[in-house]
Amino acid sequence: MMSDGFPEGGRTLLGVDRDIAWAHGRYYYRNLSFMHFRQAVLIYNPASGRKRNKRERTVLRARDAMKPSVEKVHLARTSCQGEATRLAAKAVADGCDLVASCGGDGTINEAIRGMAGSDVPLLALPAGTANVLAEEVSFPVDPAKTAALLPSLVAVKVPLGRVRKRSVDESSRVFLLMCGVGVDADIVYHLNTRLKKYLGKGAYVLGSLEQFQKRKFQHFDVRINGEIHDCTFALISKSRRYAGKLIIASGAHLLARHFQVVLFHGETPLRYVGYLAQVATGTLDQFEGVTFHRTDCVELLPRSGGQVHIEVDGEYAGRLPATVETIPDALTLLLPREYVERRPSVLLRSEAVSSASRL
């Protein structure tokens, strides 16, 4: 029996016009080419990326590309770290029916923090230093070109990850892409922000070289599904991509209700050189000292006297201890239809079983 074009009993995924439904292990669409928004806010970071002197013109082109689908686009420029969160929350409170965020993964993450839990869709316009999201969903690293795709995108409710601290004076942090603990978070923690503005990805390379002068990396404990694992780097991922084009968590997907967790157990820089070589050749899963796990909750525990840092979507997020968990249906995100339909088969199977059990 069909109802309004969708199989009866499917789980509706809220979007701008509620045109996506879930049933029997796949998504069903109606034509979204006539999607139209009344009022949008385009949040942008004028200082993100190496070509920041061109950012204003880039944003104006993105605004113009949105106009066929949006009656009015308001520009909102950030002036300090964390302001994108406030601007996104204000846009939702003011009744805007679309928020666009232009910048690197960090700027987009800030906007998400202000929108999590609302039904207002987010249009991510990748730019800036790090563009893992662009690589993950095949968005152009050109805000105007991505904005021009707006009529062809679909609105989907996606889960977010959340880093929850044990200390009452530390707030939790949400993320769309990944949470890194240990080696890579140490690099982010020690990163020179001025160098990042001028060198872009080069600043991360310099930071990596500095950290790799250590003789050994610090160990910490990870509890997954009741078992404790020892490692020096944990990647808790919702994205296949890492640091741009590298694929580490090959079984991850933004729509998945679980993380793919990749644990690196080696403690020396030389071992990490080997890891990088395996990532480059696509054979990381065959390398000794790397384990893969699937879960929706991870507990992270420091060893006695140690300080282990955390990063989310490339931005510093504090130190251990912490718990990382998924928040179902936490964000309405505009994505290419091809990405939504290109989910890993293991995800299709597991969600099909879950859907069938509800019918």
Please outline what is shown here.
With 359 residues, the chain is α+β, with helices and mostly antiparallel strands. The protein is built from 11 helices and 23 strands.
In angstroms, what separates the terminal alpha carbons?
13 Å
Assign the CATH architecture of the largest domain: Sandwich
Output mean pLDDT: 81
Largest sheet: 6 strands, antiparallel
Helical amount among residues, as a percent range?
A: 25-40%
CATH class term of the largest domain: Mainly Beta
- Quaternary state of this entry equals single chain
The tally of helices reads: 11
**CATH topology label of the largest domain:** Tumour Suppressor Smad4
How many separate domains? Answer: 2
Derived from helix and strand composition plus strand pairing, the structural class reads alpha+beta
Structure in words:
The longest helix is centred in the C-terminal third of the chain and has 14 residues, at 345-358. This protein has 359 residues and is α+β, with helices and mostly antiparallel strands. It has eleven helices and 23 strands. The protein has two domains: 37-158 and 329-358, Probable inorganic polyphosphate/atp-NAD kinase, domain 1 (Rossmann fold), CATH 3.40.50; 162-327, Tumour Suppressor Smad4 (Sandwich), CATH 2.60.200.40. Helix 6 crosses helix 8 (201-211) and helix 7 (193-199) packs across helix 8 (201-211). Helix content is 29%, strand content 35%. The strands form six sheets. The chain has a six-stranded antiparallel beta sheet with strand order 11-10-23-20-13-14. The chain has a six-stranded antiparallel beta sheet with strand order 19-18-15-12-21-22.
